[in-house]
Amino acid sequence: MDQFRINEYITLKLEAGKTVIYIRNIKFMICKRLIINISEDEPDSYKFSDSIDEVVEENKHFLYKNQIYEEPEGYLVEESTSQYLIKPEEEFWGHCSNLQAWAENNYDTRLLRNNLAFPLLKKLTDFGAPLAKSILKQEIVKRLASRFQPIIEYLFNEHYVWDYLDNEEILSIILDLSDYDALIDAFPKKYKELTFQIGRSNIHDRIMDPINIAIVKGRIVELTLDSMDLNEFPEAITRLTALEKLWLSFNKIKTLPKTLGNLKKLKVLDIGHNLLTEVPDSITNLTLLEEIWISGNQINNIPEKIKKIRNLCKLN
């Protein structure tokens, strides 16, 4: 039996022609296959990107030609082991090399398929591996920031986002993925159309209302961020061009950005009970605005610019 020790936590063994990953001598996972086989004669035949996941996504045609993968009608189908181009022993040492490179590069999840890298990193964290524990959240955030849809869907659907990020971090991720109204392309399909809440921890020993987010056709149309202790207006919000209702009351916001005028579909705006002394001229661009709350700020008189909004029917 071939055996290779990656580090004090990970060992690979070749058992009955299969590569098996052990963590602290406990069987964890059987490696299915080596996805990519690059010929020495054609080292440039693959288009490489930021991660192995993207390599697989972008080079499906080559994977099919190598008889490791095929994709009829857009679905990946595993082939039988008889079609593998390498022997089990060669495949074993290939897996050993990949896992060793992953470990030597501080468990960089871009170097393995996501369905191996993250479960393995989670299990190492459960076993108390210091490095794994310290970088798991960092890897989740980094891969979400890549905007690569398959990895975003995986991290949301497999609960890595919900289990390892706090509520404010989740909100930040959602807003970031919404840049330039791109949520319809980047956000997981199961969250294309729904209203959901992100529960919040106690602030100043009192229970706060949850963050409310409404998504229609993959785009955020309603957002509630009341009592969030926000000192600044989140700039990312101004890129949510499908937004119709925005609540930001009971925060500590002192100024509103000029880019507020980008929210041309906004119908309801609650910026009451903040520390505002004025509103930007660009607010007149919000021609669909019907309701606005500005009381509880340091604005003494109702600005004339607000009175110029034609559809405004409620001002508080």
Automatic annotation (TrEMBL):
Keywords: Leucine-rich repeat, Repeat. It comes from marine sediment metagenome. This is Disease resistance R13L4/SHOC-2-like LRR domain-containing protein. It holds the Pfam family LRR_14. Residues 223-315 form the Disease resistance R13L4/SHOC-2-like LRR domain. InterPro entries: Leu-rich_rpt, Leu-rich_rpt_typical-subtyp, LRR_dom_sf, LRR_domain-containing, LRR_R13L4/SHOC2-like. One of its GO terms (cellular component) is cytoplasm. PANTHER family: PTHR48051, RAS SUPPRESSOR PROTEIN 1.
